[in-house]
Specification:
The complex is a heterodimer of chains A (473) and B (276). Chain A is an alpha/beta fold and 473 residues long. Chain A folds into 3 domains: 2-133, Alpha-helical ferredoxin (Fumarate Reductase Iron-sulfur Protein, Chain B, domain 2); 148-242 and 401-472, FAD/NAD(P)-binding domain; 246-398, FAD/NAD(P)-binding domain, CATH 3.50.50.60. Chain A has helices spanning 25-28, 41-49, 58-62, 69-78, 81-91, 95-101, 108-111, 123-133, 156-167, 184-187, 196-209, 225-231, 260-269, 295-307, 327-335, 438-441, 446-472, and strands spanning 2-6, 9-13, 148-152, 171-175, 212-214, 234-237, 243-244, 257-259, 287-291, 311-315, 339-341, 344-351, 357-370, 376-380, 386-389, 392-395, 399-400, 433-435. In chain A, the strands form 5 sheets. A 5-stranded parallel sheet of chain A has the order 5-4-3-6-18, with helices on both faces. Chain A starts with a strand and ends with a helix. Chain B is built from 8 helices and 16 strands. In chain B, strand 5 and strand 6 (56-62) form a beta hairpin. Classes of the chains: A alpha/beta (473), B alpha/beta (276). The A-B interface holds A 177-179, 187, 215-218, 221-224, 242-244, 246, 248, 252-256, 258-259, 261-262, 265-266, 269-271, 275-283, 354-355, 402-404 and B 23-24, 27, 37, 41-44, 66-67, 70, 81-88, 213-214, 216-221, 223-225, 230, 232, 235-236, 246, 248-249, 252-253, 255-257, 260-261. The structure holds flavin-adenine dinucleotide (2 copies), iron/sulfur cluster (2 copies) and FE2/S2 (inorganic) cluster (FES).
Chain lengths: 473, 276
C-alpha cells in the first residue's frame, strides 16, 4: 500500500490493478469462449478509485486517439457510467474492442504516473467495462452535406473514418470485401480474445448513424477503382495489409505448411472450429510449430491448442525480451502450455514421401549489435543446424500489401507496395483519394489504424470545405 | 439479388445454375470467377462465370463434396447468402491465329466463355472436350457452334474417341500449325497438355483451381510456385502459362483437406441417367 494525498486526506492506494476474472487455463484450452471475463460494477469502481485525477494527465498523450482518460475515469468514480462512455466515444468509436486489444502497456498505461510505483490504472479494462455494459444509441446526424464519400475497406480504420465523416452529415458508403465489417477484428483476432458478437454490436451502430454498407464488394475487382474515383467526391482507402508473407524457405508449399492468415480466416471468419456444423474445415495436428512472436503468432498457437494440438511450439529468432506481442497474450499463451524455442530460425521444411511436412531444419541464432530500430539483430551461428520433427507448421511472420492494389489505377505506391501518402494529410497522389491504416504503415495496431481514420476524416472535411468555397465564389 | 431463376441437371452430377446479379454481369470478363456461399454455415465455393447476360449469371457446378452437393440441392427461388465477383484476372484475349481449346470434365464450363471470346476476336478454334463417359460430357453443343472442328474423347469410348484429350492433341500438333493452346480441366490433364505444349514449343494457357478460402489474396491457401516464385491463384491468376507452373506440388496440395472432406463418390446424381 502506498499513501496518496487526495484533497488533503491520506488514503491507502492499492499498488496493483484490480484483478480481472479469467477462465482457468485447463478449462479454456478446451473452448473458444473469451479468456478474460471483464470487470463487475464493483471492480470498475474500485479500479477507478486508483486514478489520481492528475492535473497534467500523462496517460492521455500515450493514447493515439487521445481519449480523455482522466475525464472518463472521474465519471466512473461518480457512478455516471453513461457519461463516461460518452466521453470515450467522442474520440473512440470502438471502446469494447480497444479495451480488449490495445497494447495498453506500450500506450496509455505506460505513461500513467501510478506505473512509477506499482501498476498503472487498468485503463483498458475500464474502457472495456463501459463498452460492454452501456450503450448510447447513435442517431443520424442533424447536419446534411451533399457530397458523397466512399470508404474502401471496413476494418477499424475505414469504420472510424466513416463514423467521423457521417457525423459531419456526408453521404457515406463503406465497400467491404467480406460479408461482414470488422477487417482483422473479424477474421484475424480470435473469438477467445475478441468475441465476434462484440465486433458486430459495435459495427451495427454504423447503420443507426445512416452509413451505407456494401459488403461483398472488392474494389479493383468486383467494382473498378476508377468508377469509385469518378462517382464519389472523396475516397478513403483503408484496406489493410492483409496478404500473408512467407519466409520462402525450401518446402514452403509442402502439405501441412500454412500461413497464419489461412488458419485464422478458416477459424474466425468461417467458424471452422465448429466444423462440421459449419462447412469449412481446418487442419490441426498433434505436434505443431508456429513461427514468429507477435500477436498473430500467439493467436495461432492458442487457436491450435484449442483445436486439439497436443504440443504447440513457438519458434522465434530473438529472445523472450524482444517478443512484440501484447504482454497479456504472451502470458496467456504460456499459461496455456505453449512451448517456446528462442534464438532459433527455420531454414528448411523437410518432406516425407507424400510431400507432407515431416520435420523442420533450424539454425541457432545469437543477438548482435542493435539495428536502426534499436533491437538487437539476430545472427545465425554457423554449423548449429538441427532437425526437429513436426507434423504441421504455421508461418506468422507478418503481412504485406495485397496485389489487388495493382488494379487501383493511377494510385502511387511506395517501394514496399504500400500506398504513398502525405504524412500530414494522408492524401494520396490522386487529389480526392486519401489512405491510412495498415495499407500505409504496414501491419500496426487497431488504435493506430483508427487514429489514421480520424486524421483522414479531418483532411477530407477540409478538402471538401475548400472545394465548396471555391464553387460558391 | 442472388436469387436462383433456373437450376438444371445437365450431365452426371453436373448442374447448371442461373441466378440474378446485375453488378457481376456489368463488370465480368471471360476467365474470371466468383465465390458463392449458400448460407451462414456454408463454405465459400469458387466457380467460373460461364455466361453473363441481362443481369443473369450462369455457373456450372460439379458435385464433388459437401458444399457442391448442398448447392446442387437448392431450388428455383432460393438465394445465395453471399456472392462476390468477378474475381481473378481476365483471360488474355487477342488474335493469336489457330487455337486449340481443351476442356476436361467440368473444365469445359470455364473454357466456354474464353473460347467464345477468342472466336469473336477472329481466331480459328479447334476444340477438344474430354469426359469420363457420355453421361458426363457437357456443353458439346455450344462448343460445336463456335469451333471449326470439335473432337470428343471419353475414357470408356461411350462417345467420341476412346481415350484422352492428349491423344487428339498429339495428332493435331503433328498435322497443323497451332499458335496457342488453352487447357482447363483436372490438374493432371493440364499437366499432360502442358508437357505436350512444351515439347512442341507452343504456348499454353491453363486455369488453376487450387483450394481457396477468401479468394481475395488474404489467406495464401491458393499459393502456387510460378517460375519458382510464390503467387496466389486468386489474385495473380487463375490463368497462368502452363510451362511456368510447378504441377507436382500443386497436385499434392489439392489433397490437403481430403481427410476432412468426405469423399464425393457416395453421392448419387439426382437426374435420371438419360438426362442427355
Ligand atoms: C491475428 C492478428 C492479431 C492482431 N492482434 C492485435 C492486437 O491484439 N492489438 C492491436 O492493436 N492490433 C492487433 N493486430 C493488428 C490490427 O488488427 C491491424 O493493425 C488493424 O486491424 C488494421 O486496421 P485497418 O483498418 O488498416 O485494416 P484491416 O483490419 O486489415 O481491414 C481492412 C478491411 O478492408 C477490406 N478490404 C481489403 N481489400 C479490399 C478491397 N479491395 N475492397 C474492399 N474491401 C477491401 C478487408 O476485407 C478488411 O475488412 C492484429 C492483427 C492480426 C492479423
Ligand atoms: C478459380 C476456380 C474456379 C472453379 N470453377 C469451377 C466451375 O466452374 N465448376 C465447378 O464445378 N468447379 C469449379 N471449381 C472447383 C470448385 O470450387 C470445387 O470443386 C468446390 O469448391 C469443391 O467443394 P466441395 O465442398 O463440394 O468439395 P470438397 O468436399 O470440399 O472437396 C472435394 C475436392 O475438391 C477440392 N476442393 C475443396 N475445396 C476447394 C476449393 N475451395 N477450391 C478448389 N478445390 C477445392 C478438394 O481438394 C477435394 O479434392 C473452381 C475452383 C476454382 C479455384
Ligand atoms: S484507445 Fe487504447 S490506447 Fe487509447 S485509452 Fe483506450 S486502451 Fe488506451
Ligand atoms: S496518469 Fe494515471 S492516475 Fe493520472 S489521470 Fe491518467 S490514469 Fe489517472
Ligand atoms: S484464396 Fe486466399 S489468397 Fe487466394
Amino acid at each position: 500500500m502506498q499513501p496518496n494525498i487526495n484533497a488533503g486526506v491520506i488514503v491507502m492506494q492499492n499498488r496493483n490493478k484490480t484483478k480481472m476474472k479469467i477462465q482457468d487455463p485447463e478449462a479454456r484450452i478446451k473452448n473458444f469462449r473469451e479468456v478474460a471475463l471483464g470487470y463487475s460494477f464493483e471492480d470498475a469502481k474500485e479500479e477507478a478509485q486508483r486514478c489520481l485525477n492528475c492535473k497534467n494527465p500523462q496517460c492521455i498523450s500515450g493514447c493515439p486517439v487521445n481519449v480523455d482518460i482522466r475525464g472518463f475515469i472521474q465519471e466512473i468514480k461518480k457512478g455516471n457510467f453513461e457519461n463516461a462512455l460518452k466521453i470515450i466515444k467522442n474520440t473512440n468509436g470502438l471502446p469494447a474492442i480497444c479495451g480488449r486489444v490495445c497494447p495498453q502497456e506500450k500506450q496509455c498505461e505506460e505513461r500513467c504516473v501510478l506505473g512509477k510505483i506499482g501498476e498503472p490504472v487498468a485503463i483498458g479494462r475500464l474502457e472495456r467495462f463501459l463498452g460492454d455494459n452501456f450503450s448510447i444509441r447513435t442517431e443520424p446526424p442533424s447536419k446534411k452535406r451533399e457530397e458523397k464519400i466512399a470508404i474502401i475497406g471496413g476494418g477499424p480504420s475505414g469504420i472510424t473514418a466513416a463514423i467521423d465523416l457521417r457525423k459531419e452529415g456526408f453521404d457515406v458508403t463503406i465497400f467491404e470485401a467480406f460479408p461482414k465489417l470488422g477487417g482483422v477484428l473479424l477474421y484475424g483476432i480470435p473469438q477467445f480474445r475478441l468475441p465476434k458478437e462484440i465486433v458486430e454490436t459495435e459495427t451495427n451502430e454504423l447503420k443507426n448513424l445512416g452509413i451505407k454498407i456494401e459488403t461483398n464488394h472488392i474494389i479493383g475487382r468486383s467494382l473498378p477503382f476508377e468508377k469509385i474515383v469518378e462517382e464519389y467526391d472523396a475516397i478513403y482507402i483503408g484496406i489493410g495489409a492483409g496478404a500473408p508473407r512467407f519466409m520462402g524457405i525450401p518446402g514452403t508449399n509442402l502439405k501441412n505448411v500454412f500461413s497464419s492468415s489461412e488458419i485464422l480466416t478458416r477459424v474466425n471468419l468461417m467458424k471452422a472450429y465448429e466444423f462440421p456444423e459449419y462447412g469449412t474445415p481446418v487442419f490441426c495436428k498433434e505436434k505443431a510449430a508456429v513461427i514468429g512472436a507477435g500477436n498473430v503468432t500467439m493467436d495461432v498457437a492458442r487457436t491450435l491448442k484449442r483445436l486439439g494440438a497436443e504440443e504447440v511450439t513457438i519458434i522465434y529468432r530473438r529472445t523472450e525480451n524482444e517478443v512484440p506481442a501484447r504482454k497479456e497474450e504472451f502470458d496467456h499463451a504460456r499459461e496455456e502450455g505453449v512451448n517456446f524455442l528462442w534464438l532459433t530460425q527455420p531454414i528448411e521444411y523437410l518432406p516425407d514421401e507424400t510431400k507432407t511436412l515431416k520435420a523442420i531444419k533450424c539454425i541457432k541464432m545469437e543477438l548482435g549489435e542493435p539495428d536502426s530500430s534499436g533491437r538487437r539483430k539476430p545472427i545465425p551461428i554457423e554449423g548449429s543446424e538441427f532437425i526437429l520433427d513436426f507434423q504441421m507448421v504455421v508461418e506468422a511472420i507478418g503481412q504485406k500489401s495485397n496485389s489487388v492494389l495493382k488494379a487501383f489505377e493511377g494510385l502511387q505506391l511506395n517501394k514496399w507496395g504500400y500506398i504513398d501518402v502525405n504524412e500530414e494529410t494522408l492524401q494520396t497522389n490522386i487529389e480526392n483519394v486519401f489512405a491510412g491504416g495498415d495499407i500505409v504503415t504496414g501491419s500496426a495496431t487497431v488504435i493506430l489504424a483508427m487514429g489514421a481514420g480520424k486524421k483522414a476524416a479531418e483532411s477530407i472535411l477540409a478538402f471538401l470545405n475548400e472545394k465548396k468555397e471555391v464553387k460558391t465564389l | 439479388m442472388n436469387e436462383i431463376i433456373e437450376i438444371n441437371c445437365i450431365a452426371n452430377l453436373t448442374y447448371e445454375i442461373i441466378f440474378c446479379n446485375g453488378e457481376i454481369c456489368e463488370n465480368s470478363k471471360p476467365g474470371q470467377f466468383l465465390i458463392l456461399q449458400k448460407d451462414e454455415f456454408s463454405e465459400r465455393v469458387p466457380l467460373t462465370i460461364v455466361n453473363c447476360e441481362d443481369g443473369k449469371v450462369r455457373v456450372i457446378i460439379k458435385v464433388v463434396g459437401r458444399s457442391s452437393l448442398e448447392i446442387s440441392e437448392m431450388k428455383v427461388g432460393d438465394s445465395f447468402k453471399n456472392v462476390v465477383g468477378p474475381l481473378g484476372n481476365h483471360s488474355e484475349i487477342r488474335k493469336y491465329g489457330n487455337i486449340v481449346c481443351i476442356g476436361g470434365g467440368v473444365g469445359a464450363a470455364p473454357l466456354l466463355p474464353v473460347t467464345r471470346e477468342l472466336k469473336k476476336t477472329g481466331n480459328k478454334i479447334i476444340s477438344i472436350l474430354g469426359a469420363a463417359d457420355a453421361n458426363s460430357l457437357i456443353l458439346d453443343d455450344e462448343f460445336e457452334k463456335i469451333s471449326e472442328k470439335l473432337y470428343i474423347t471419353t475414357n470408356d469410348g461411350s462417345k467420341g474417341k476412346k481415350g484422352f484429350v492428349t491423344d487428339i492433341l498429339k495428332e493435331l500438333l503433328k498435322e497443323k500449325k497451332v499458335d496457342i493452346i488453352w487447357a482447363i480441366g483436372p490438374m493432371i490433364m493440364m499437366r499432360e497438355v502442358t508437357k505436350l505444349s512444351v515439347e512442341n514449343a507452343v504456348p499454353c494457357w491453363v486455369s488453376l483451381n487450387p483450394i481457396m478460402v477468401d479468394g481475395t489474396g488474404m489467406c495464401g491457401a491458393c499459393r502456387v510456385h510460378i517460375k519458382n516464385e510464390i503467387k496466389f491463384a486468386c489474385v495473380d491468376g487463375p490463368e497462368f502459362s502452363g510451362a511456368d507452373v510447378n504441377w507436382d506440388e500443386l497436385i499434392s496440395r489439392l489433397s490437403q483437406y481430403r481427410d476432412q472432406e468426405k469423399s464425393a463418390t457416395e453421392y448419387k446424381c439426382r437426374c435420371d441417367s438419360n438426362a442427355k
